[in-house]
Design brief:
The structure holds two protein chains of two kinds.
Chain A (H helix, E strand, L loop, with lengths): L2 E4 L3 E4 L4 E5 L13 H9 L7 E7 L7 E7 L5 E6 L6
Antiparallel strand pairs in A: 1-2, 3-4, 4-5, 5-6
Chain B lengths: L5 H9 L20 E4 L3 H13 L5 E4 L15 E2 L6 H15 L1 H5 L10 E5 L2 H16 L5 E4 H7 L15 E5 L3 E2 L2 H14 L3 E3 L4 E7 L2 E7 L2 E4 L3 E3 L5 H7 L6 E11 L9 E4 L4 E5 L5 E11 L7 H14 L8 E12 L5 E4 L5 E5 L9 H14 L13 H4 L16
Parallel strand pairs in B: 1-2, 1-12, 2-8, 4-14, 12-19
Antiparallel strand pairs in B: 3-7, 4-6, 5-6, 9-10, 10-11, 13-16, 13-17, 14-15, 15-16, 18-19
The chains are: A mainly beta, B alpha/beta.
Chain lengths: 89, 418
């Protein structure tokens, strides 16, 4: 069982959360020419690292806030959680 | 290779089974190969086998980081089916289904192919309509499928919840009667033995650490056991594809996720074929030992850990008990996890890459096992001729750029949400 520390509510079991995928993916800027490649990269292509992964989670059955989790994909260890606007380095 | 037969069995019985040949050699890597397959799982072994057998490339090596059959080929729930809707999937997987029929004879190894049927249950009128559409799509492609009503389903699984209290009442189901199971380990061992017999070097405990690329074409691989020269490389590493792709400066439309399965304690024969629950993600079959083999959802977060967490098992088994209330009395014997290479449209990728001589086989999501023979055959064709076989031509890597997705489940890029 993962125990995830929601930045707003504190430690809760993983049952309360849903996963939102890679948090490092950047949507191309609006109001400028966007190439097909940029869109494809944004929509389909992922780094998919083994090791440290920065990802989005949603506290679905709690405060319903989105936040970022730094987690190790090879051990499932949760290193740190961040509010969405927080610098995550 | 000495042929396995009833006579060899009797003969060896007299020697107390002390004189059986090893099933495959344990060779030292040579300096150079005509083709190298990375990954000694089902797909890698099958690819090497068909390369040697059908495409006359004899000097082949399989490099495996761990041991043969230790990855997803030994972790899956052994289901064979071709009940898809899109033509590309239908034709591809059904070619595989035809190959399964003769596989034991072909490999001279009993893969325990057992076509007892796969039944997808529907729990609403709308779902039954959707299954009817899928069944029609299968039949248009020449694949047998039949739509069953509630009473016909009851004859097959009388112990399912047919009471008025069922949260998701059974309306009917879609049956593919040639669906079924095969022994997953035997598939790996059978292909390994047959490939070895054709001269393929199966090199275990040999990790690929890098590639030698000169002017956009591959010259060899660096491994934990030294440099090996080759001009053709096939990647069959499932959940680890992104790790090797990074060494090739490629980014892929893939996420690695952990999928768990579990088996119960063995019980007397209860369930004949494979049954899938339509109101969630749960499926079940019974192994020859009598264990109920069950699986369902991914854990739902990126993982390379080959183990999952309890909430998913609990969730999957809750669905199982909703369908088969008598499962609640069984003890679970063991659960395990494997790493799925989840592609962004839920369909596989078998293609060449922008690097000459590097070929890619990945994106199998939940369903790589059933494709083992046909994936091996078409990937071997792609590697040998440099062009895709007509069956794998739609499974291009660049479909994510051109928009020709094969979005079987209508989940778009979030195949891990299902």
């Amino acid at each position: 069982m993962l125990e995830i520390k929601c930045p707003y509510c504190g430690r809760r079991s993983q049952n309360e959360f849903s996963y939102g995928g890679d948090a490092t993916v950047k949507r191309p800027k609006l109001n400028k020419d966007i190439s097909d490649n940029e869109w494809d990269e944004f929509i389909y292509y992922r780094k998919n690292p083994r090791g440290i992964h920065l990802e989005l989670w949603h506290h679905t059955s709690g405060c319903r806030q989105w936040f970022k989790v730094k987690r190790d994909t090879s051990t499932h260890e949760i290193i740190k959680t961040f509010m969405i606007e927080e610098e995550s380095q | 290779m000495k042929k396995y037969s009833v006579f060899s069995l009797i003969k060896n019985a007299f020697n107390k089974h002390q004189d059986w040949d090893v099933a495959w050699r344990d060779p030292e890597p040579k300096k150079e190969y005509d083709a190298i397959i990375i990954g000694g799982g089902g797909h890698g072994l099958a690819t090497a086998y068909y390369l040697a057998k059908e495409y006359e490339i004899k000097n082949i090596a399989i490099l495996e980081k761990g041991w043969i059959g230790g990855g997803n080929i030994g972790r899956n729930t052994t289901i064979l089916r071709s009940n898809y809707m899109h033509d590309a999937n239908n034709l591809f997987y059904d070619h595989g289904m035809q190959m399964w029929k003769d596989l034991s004879q072909e490999l001279n190894y009993n893969v325990m192919y057992s076509p007892r049927g796969i039944l997808n249950l529907a729990h609403s009128d709308a779902q039954l309509n959707a299954y009817s559409r899928r069944g029609n799509s299968m039949r248009l492609n020449g694949i047998e499928a039949s739509l069953l009503g509630r009473e016909e389903v009851r004859k097959i699984i009388p112990f399912a919840d047919f009471t008025d209290n069922a949260r998701f009442p059974i309306f009917g189901g879609l049956m593919q009667s040639i669906g079924g199971t095969a022994r997953h380990d035997a598939v790996a061992w059978g292909y390994a033995r047959a490939a070895d017999d054709l001269g393929v070097d199966i090199i275990q405990h040999c990790e690929v650490t890098g590639f030698d690329i000169v002017n956009g074409s591959v010259q060899g691989v660096h491994t934990s056991r030294g440099f090996i020269k080759t001009n053709k490389i096939g990647l069959c590493v499932a959940g680890s594809t992104s790790i090797l792709a990074e060494k090739l400066n490629m980014s892929l439309p893939i996420e690695s996720h952990v999928l768990q399965a579990c088996v119960s304690e063995p019980v007397k024969p209860l369930l004949d074929g494979v049954v899938t629950f339509g109101a969630g993600h749960f499926y079940c079959s019974q192994s020859d030992k009598g264990e109920m083999v069950m699986g369902g959802d991914l854990d739902g977060y990126n993982s390379y850990a080959q183990r999952g967490n309890l909430p998913t098992i609990q969730h999957v088994l809750t669905e199982g008990v909703a369908l088969f209330p008598n499962l609640s009395r069984l003890k679970m014997l063991r659960s395990w996890g494997g790493i799925m290479d989840m592609s962004m449209d839920g369909s596989p990728i078998i293609d060449k890459t922008h690097i000459e001589g590097v070929y890619l086989n990945c994106g199998w999501c939940y369903g790589g096992f059933k494709a083992t023979p046909v994936s091996g055959l078409t990937f071997a064709h792609t590697i040998a001729t440099g062009e895709p076989h007509k069956l794998n031509a739609p499974f291009k890597l660049d479909r994510f750029h051109t928009g020709h997705l094969i979005d079987e489940k209508g989940l778009g890029t979030k195949t891990w949400i299902s």
